[in-house]
Amino acid sequence: MQFSLSSELTPVVAPGLLVFDGARVSVVARDERMDAPIVVTEQAIRGGRDFTEEIARVRAMYKRLGLDPTKVRPSSEALLRRVRKGDPLPRVNSVVDICNWCSVETQLPFGLYDYDKIEGDAVSLRVGAAGEGYDGIRKDRVNVDGRLTLADARGPFGNPTSDSARTMVTLDTTRVLFVVYCPREHERQGLAGACDLTARRMLEFTGAAPTLRLTL
User: CATH no. for residue 156?
Assistant: First the structure.
């Protein structure tokens, strides 16, 4: 699989990609080993952990594309708001749970995709064209016109607010692609740590190590 970033987005976003496709990735409905450490993260957030700078950077990334991040909210901030209200992080399956856990803790939007449901041999991160979109996960159609979007041979399938149902990770998934949508100016401070955290948790809870790690 070839990955590319459109030139107009190079100053805006530094995507970090992690592929886990060596040995079978073990996806289970719920890994109870995560319960206690996820609660610790939730408690730290409710205890006043400050993410002001991280939120501002991601919002600035959206604004550079002409988007209002209070209306089209980054997934990382949506998770943070949920936890601060007193709700737990959503638990979907072990790999999705790792994705949400890493995203809320780093305050970077993450995308998570079933590698085998990506069509063709190339994935690009670009700005969505007029009329482009897809069926979202537990949502109606997601419009990506003018937004950051991942696209394969079939068209768009992901963005830092909401991913597509077509490429979502299920219990049958054996190969996965994580994408960390990091603001370019935060690349040095935040991207490596977010990728390290994801790789560490995937190894601990699924037994899978990344076979590709790439920054565009």
Answer: 3.50.40.10
